[in-house]
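re: the backbone from monday

yeah here it is again, tokenized this time
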């Protein structure tokens, strides 16, 4: 049975005070519509994507989305109402039966889990809604704004999207609805509940991040959520990892010890050809652009290609900024940020030729500067922004760029800065290395890859 992801993009942005439809506003470097279409187009359980757009915008949207989204089939004008738009969707899908997920285009932060659970729930149910518990007390009022009832909050849920249906069920509900002269509904689950009361609508847990961009403040919130978006890389077994990495050429910069050395060891065990460089082993300084270019050219000359470049080198100097020497300031910025810029510049042509991967490293301090970590925290925040920007710049070259964000990790650098710490309070370098290779083996791009002690890397 085919599964359709239908993006409902018929809004006009009146409450945002915009002259363009709200789904066409840019957030985190892309239009809201692009973020939403990408979420469905990249999902392995979605077979085809349909976009229902504001009348008059079909050609502009087709030009904007272009050929980048391989599952995108139809771009159609929506109706005047949500219900009319749904009827057009039902008419456009020619199959007798299918799974259909209807999603608000202005919920660009829908995640893979929510989509997966909706699709799988349709194996057992005919209709599915995405909801989250109500954290606020909800009151009912009369015409004079006087409270008449306070429902039990434990039974209340806030509706989100997608809303998912068996195609035949939604068609049957609308067939009955059109016979009702008083028919009006603001969502499609409401149509099923009202006109097919015998059909149970299963609820799937949504997410607080799955916000609907409706008011001006929502644009700011969505932009910040994209900036801080993190996820874990899909976990692979040793056999699955070997199937992806065997024969790949991987360069590890900062591979003398710690996380870099563990990445090199695990990648070799998976069958990759690994070249590891480090200041204390091969004398390579990661902030030296010409040295990096020579090193990468040598690897490409010997192996014929470079499939991944991983930069793990870092320098942690703590203390008040006012007390830091200029030499320490220059070195900290050079190793923690300039190195990432130089590695990216030197690696681009090699990775573009192979459709390869660039993996950078940040720190949990990137989200907010910390006392006595001013240079380190700000440099690591810059690395995240660099990685997210390059993921977009290099998408057309087939290069995937991600940034690993490990919790506190047991490395020589940390030991030198903080001394011995309680057993079990730190990640091991091997755990971080395993998660890093999972990221290299994935199709993720533009993501901050969180590695936590609760993750199954042991």
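seq for it, each position gets an aa:
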């Amino acid at each position: 049975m085919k599964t359709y992801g239908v993006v409902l993009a018929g809004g006009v942005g009146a409450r945002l005070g915009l002259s363009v439809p709200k789904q066409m506003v840019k957030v985190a470097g892309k239009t809201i519509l692009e973020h939403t279409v990408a979420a469905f187009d990249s999902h392995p359980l979605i077979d085809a994507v349909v976009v229902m757009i504001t009348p008059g915008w079909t050609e502009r949207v087709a030009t904007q989305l272009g050929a980048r989204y391989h599952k995108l089939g139809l771009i159609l004008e929506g109706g005047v109402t949500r219900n009319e738009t749904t009827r057009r969707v039902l008419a456009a899908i020619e199959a007798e039966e299918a799974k259909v997920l209807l999603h608000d285009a202005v919920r660009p932060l829908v995640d893979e889990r929510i989509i997966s659970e909706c699709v799988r729930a349709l194996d057992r149910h005919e209709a599915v809604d995405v909801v989250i518990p109500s954290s606020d007390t909800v009151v009912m009022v009369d015409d004079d704004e006087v409270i008449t009832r306070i429902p039990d909050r434990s039974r209340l849920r806030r509706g989100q999207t997608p809303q998912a249906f068996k195609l035949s069920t939604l068609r049957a509900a609308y067939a009955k609805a059109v016979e009702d002269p008083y028919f009006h509904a603001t969502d499609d689950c409401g149509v099923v509940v009202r006109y097919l009361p015998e059909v149970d609508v299963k609820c799937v847990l949504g997410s607080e991040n799955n916000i609907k961009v409706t008011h001006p403040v929502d644009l700011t919130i969505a932009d910040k959520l994209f900036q801080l978006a993190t996820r874990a890389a899909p976990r692979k077994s040793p056999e699955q990892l070997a199937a992806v990495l065997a024969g790949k050429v991987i360069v590890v910069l900062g591979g003398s010890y710690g996380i870099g050395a563990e990445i090199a060891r695990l990648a070799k065990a998976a069958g990759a050809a690994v070249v590891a460089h480090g200041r204390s082993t091969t004398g390579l300084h990661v902030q030296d652009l010409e040295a990096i270019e020579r090193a990468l050219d040598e690897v490409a000359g010997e192996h014929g290609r470079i499939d991944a470049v991983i930069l793990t080198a870092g320098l942690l100097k703590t203390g008040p900024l006012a007390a830091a020497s200029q030499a320490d300031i220059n070195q900290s910025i050079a190793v923690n940020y300039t190195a990432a810029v130089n590695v990216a510049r030197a690696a681009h042509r090699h990775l573009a030729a192979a459709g390869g991967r660039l993996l950078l490293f940040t720190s949990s301090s990137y989200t907010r500067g910390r006392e006595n970590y001013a240079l380190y925290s700000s440099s690591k925040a810059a690395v995240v922004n660099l990685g997210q920007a390059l993921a977009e710049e290099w998408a057309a070259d087939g290069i995937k760029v991600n940034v690993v964000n490990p919790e506190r990790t047991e490395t020589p650098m940390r030991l030198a800065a903080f001394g011995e710490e309680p057993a079990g309070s730190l990640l091991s370098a091997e755990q971080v290395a395993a998660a890093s290779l999972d990221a290299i083996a994935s199709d993720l791009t533009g993501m901050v890859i969180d590695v936590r002690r609760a993750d199954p890397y042991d």
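The two ends are 38 Å apart (CA to CA). The chain has 14 helices and 20 strands.
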